[in-house]
Amino acid sequence: MRKLYSYCYKLSVLKIVLIGMFLPKILNLFLVAIFELFNISRGAPVITKSLLWFIMVPMILAPLVETLVYQYLPLRICQKWFRRYKYSFCITIVLVSIVFASRHAHMGIIGICNSLLAGIVWCFLCFVLMRKKRNPILYTTIMHACSNAIAISISIILSGITIHVE
Fold first, then answer.
1. Can you tell me the mean pLDDT for 2-31?
2. Does an H or E element contain 140, and which?
3. How many other β-carbons are positioned within 10 Å of the β-carbon of residue 10?
4. How confident is the model at residue 163 (pLDDT cuts 50, 70, 90)?
5. Whose CA, among 17, 27, 146, 162, lies 20 to 30 Å from 136?
């Protein structure tokens, strides 16, 4: 874990953001393949009515609120609680990622697992950005928003959803 942390710490912020945008999607491809192999349901699709709502919630509002409430604040709290333990870094990242994944329980088992993997990646990178004294909230929100935009775009393309502007 230290080698991975040291490697990420040396990266530029742009490279960290790019990793945060694409690594969860790559992990999701493997996860989807495993779930398809075992024929596990993906959960109910989400239908929106307004293009403004469609853009505002998953690409702006949700990433900001979820980064603050379900990632950054729990990360800071867990850092203080588990500071004395040997594996405090790993414990903190796993607990914060579980909290983040629980927020996505409405998406079914694949949504929870995907959110858990993304939460681990984003929490780790948020921790690196905090140590680099960069703006972890801003950059983690950008990673989350771009990842959501990629997921929504792929869903629209693959499912043939048409968006009606009201």
1. 86
2. helix 136-159
3. 10
4. low
5. 27
Q: Using CA atoms, how far apart are residues 146 and 129, in angstroms rounded to an integer? A: 17
42 Cβ contact list (under 8 Å, min separation 6): 35, 108, 110, 111
Pick the closest to residue 42 from 121, 153, 159 (CA basis). Answer: 159
For residues 101 and 83, give the distance between their C-alpha atoms in angstroms, rounded to a whole number.
Answer: 23
Instruction: Grade residue 43 by pLDDT with cuts at 50, 70 and 90.
Output: low
pTM of the model: 0.79
- Cα 6 from chain centroid (whole Å): 21
